[in-house]
Amino acid sequence: MDNNAIKKVATIISASWIYTADSEDRLLKDYSVVVDANRIIDLLPTEKVFESYEASEVYSLSDHIIIPGLINTHTHSAMSLFKGYADDLRLKSWLNEYIWPAEKQHVDSKFVKDGSMIAIAEMLKGGITTFNDMYFFPQSTAEAVSETGIRSNIGLVVLEFSTNYANDPGDYLSKGFEFMDSCRENSLITTSIAPHAPYSVSDKTFELIGTYAEQLGLSIHTHLQETQSEVQESIKKFGVTPTQRLSSLNILGPNLLAAHCVHLSEQDLDLLALNNVYISHNPSSNLKLGSGLADLSSMIKRGVSVSLGTDSSASNNRLDIFEEMRLASLLVKGKSGNPEHLPAVEVLRMVTIEAAKALGLESDIGSIEINKKADMVAINLDSIDLLPSYDPLATVIYSAGRSDVNYVWVDGNVKLKENELVNIDTDKLKFLAKSWQTKIQKI
Asked: Can you give the three-state secondary structure of the chain, one letter per residue?
């Protein structure tokens, strides 16, 4: 080929395997991804790539599999500073007796910035390139996102009661919309309205949120039916389950992402499926808080789109999507008695393209396809812990862990290189974590 026809690009990444998560679920062998201007511009056999392209950065990753960037669809990043603060408690006691009082004493914009920075470092090391957040002082989370270069959907949290951040629902929404307007030009940040939960948000506020979401084209992110006591209290107070209550308030729909959904009746499941609600399944947090086991088989059987979340470090202690993937697959097999349920490829879709759909970002991320943004992860399969590897996708789900993540790219920019974070001072973050640990005392 004439050298004049060779196109200069930013990056070429070649690997032994590439899992695309596209509509055909292609697993490509000895292929290369070509990246320029933050997007994937080509995907072709490695033996042909240098006939057409010349790159400023070239990665030749033998014995690696490249997958789309992993998406964490439910977390509260700043709560990394409460990691290990209140373990081995039920959700109600955990919230009322420890977390909410500690938040009242310590949470401010600096707490959120520092906690988010620590959480983002942990997530990037584990291959998470996008996280769906719900917490106070969203501007501080946005600052951490901008400094680190990760991608985030940041929730505009709403509660009935006052916190250090806002006084009442109107104040939460006003501050949230002001934040939303301030970050419109930031390509790494999108927003949603995040009413905390049906037990902490009134009918009137939910109706207002529904109106705003429809008028502004925003999604809604909330906790839903996480515990049995939550369901029982809703029936006692409203005569219906939280899901049925949200249905009567016209909140259920394809713009709703509901986290947990552990205790759902058949009617609840039917309502969620009928209204095309997205569910974020959080197996580790559900188990650690003793909330129970979500009926993932019934969700999938009804065609409900399910993604995975870690919840916060305060209720999980790990922002580790690899652990959630393996656990989700094993739990559904064990609970259903059918080992064929939730095979590896379906689990990977839950943390890539299905998660992107849940956040309304599927046109930009979630799969490795031409014209999509270059959010990708390279996993090193050349480890005694992972070999032999007969099926690379099964190896990723059942054998690999976040320590096997060797490279991470967000928007085409390398964020983890040879297992080391790029442009993030981990020593500084460790100092911040220890400083907050000294400051935060149990109440």
From this structure: CCHHHCEEEEEEEEEEEEECCCCCCCEEEEEEEEEECCEEEEEEEHHHHHHHEEEEEEEEEEEEEEEECEEEEEECHHHHHHCCCCCCCCHHHHHHHHHHHHHHHHCCHHHHHHHHHHHHHHHHHCCEEEEEEEECCHHHHHHHHHHHCCEEEEEEEECCCCCCCCCCHHHHHHHHHHHHHHCCCCCCEEEEEEECCHHHCCHHHHHHHHHHHHHHCCEEEEEECCCHHHHHHHHHHHCCCHHHHHHHCCCCCCCEEEEECCCCCHHHHHHHHHCCCEEEECHHHHHHCCCCCCCHHHHHHCCCCEEECCCCCCCCCCCCHHHHHHHHHHHHHHHHCCCCCCCHHHHHHHCCHHHHHHCCCCCCCCCCCCCCECCEEEEECCCCCCCCCCCHHHHHHHCCCHHHEEEEEECCEEEEECCEECCCCHHHHHHHHHHHHHHCCCC
Burial bucket for residue 181 (CB in 10 Å: 0-12, 13-18, 19+): exposed
Q: Report CA torsion sign: 297, 301, 302, 305.
A: positive
In the beta sheet, which residues pair with residue 133?
75, 154
The pTM assigned to this predicted structure is: 0.97
Query: What Å distances lie between residue 355 and 49, 408, 428, CA to CA?
Result: 30, 18, 32
Bridge partners of 408, per DSSP, are: 377, 416
pLDDT tens digits, 290-343: 999 999 999 999 999 999 999 999 999 999 999 999 999 999 999 999 999 999
Which residue, among 20, 154, 68, has the nearest Cα to 355 in the 3D structure?
Answer: 68
User: C-alpha angle with apex 382: 376 to 384, nearest 5 degrees?
Assistant: 130
Going by C-alpha positions, the residue among 297, 292, 256, 262 that lies closest to residue 274 is 256
Cα–Cα separations (whole angstroms), residue 191 to 115, 132, 151, 176: 19, 9, 11, 9
In 3D, which of 292, 295, 308, 301 has the Cα closest to residue 273?
301
pLDDT tens digits, 148-203: 999 999 999 999 999 999 999 999 999 999 999 999 999 999 999 999 999 999 99
**What is the average pLDDT score of the chain?**
97
**CB crowding 416-428: b at 16 or more within 10 Å, else e:** beeeebeebeeee
Instruction: List pLDDT tens digits, range 374-410.
Output: 999 999 999 999 999 999 999 999 999 999 999 999 9
